[in-house]
From TrEMBL:
It comes from Pseudomonas segetis. PANTHER family: ARAC-FAMILY TRANSCRIPTIONAL REGULATOR, HTH-TYPE TRANSCRIPTIONAL REGULATOR RV1931C. This is Transcriptional regulator, AraC family with amidase-like domain. PROSITE patterns: HTH_ARAC_FAMILY_1, HTH_ARAC_FAMILY_2. The lineage of its organism: Bacteria, Pseudomonadati, Pseudomonadota, Gammaproteobacteria, Pseudomonadales. One of its GO terms (molecular function) is DNA-binding transcription factor activity. Keywords: DNA-binding, Transcription, Transcription regulation.
Amino acid sequence: MDALKTIACLIYPDFMSLDAIGPLQVFASANVERQRQGLPAYYRTLLLAEQAGPIRTSAGIEVIAAQALDEIQASEIDTLLIPGGIGEHQQVCNQRLLDWLRSAEPQIRRLGSVCSGALILAASGLLDGRRATTHWADVETLRRDHPNIEVLADQLHTYDAHDTQGNAHLFTSAGVTAGIDLALALIEADLGRVIALAVARRLVMFLRRPGGQAQFSALLSPEPSRTPRLAALLDWIPTRIGEDLSLEVLAAQACMTPRTLSRVFIQELGVGPGKYVEKVRLEAARNLLQDAQASISTVSRLTGFGHPENLRRTFQKHLSVSPQEYAQRFT
């Protein structure tokens, strides 16, 4: 058998512990599942830092970095992940770290980030000309500070094992739990779907959310204080999702002209009324399907999509899965 594949996380002061420990636990669990099947371990997990020793996380606890960067050859690392956390603000200016990443990148089979770790990769220049995502709260920072990057705001990760444009080598993921989705995708590419499924079951997780799936719920955002002119309307929309929510109906409810309402939606939410309503309806459909509360035909009717084909198209556009697949994976 080949030597164990080293999966390393490069940590730094005030990194988010879940961004590193979450993915590493997924790889460790893959070893456990292989051993249950009478197979040898496949991965070696490792925490790296500029200096070996205790590193304080953003949660205030300390973890131990087993090795320093100058104690390991980059070629020994199969996969390197850069976590996010409030400490990334210092690391984007850490030239020693950025230089090491640039020199290590050609020697590492897979190099990726979790959450705001994408800002560190971006600062190194490695994401220039590429597609990237990050935690939704950092999307605008990534887009503003790095105009040469194609920022995908509504995506869980950019890893694609079959991609020929470099996305199997250099990739990013969204916040916190998206790093676990990324780790499952990497394991599936290495060891197959059976092992990935076994790991997901063992960790009581959804097998693998597709990388193109949206990051967060439309019903959780935005806060009313950030949308003062729309707050009452945004509370009203979810109570009427099965009814006519055309622009004219919304405008009448908000006591605005359709043109004014469209302008206010763009100003305060960044999307038009139609797209917002679609996302709210999608979220309601997701909740009904994952709770097995109704058939797909009934869900389509209750959430305002009408025909199941309209629901299917919306699921494919936003979640990269069909309603049937979504229901099977969550119920």
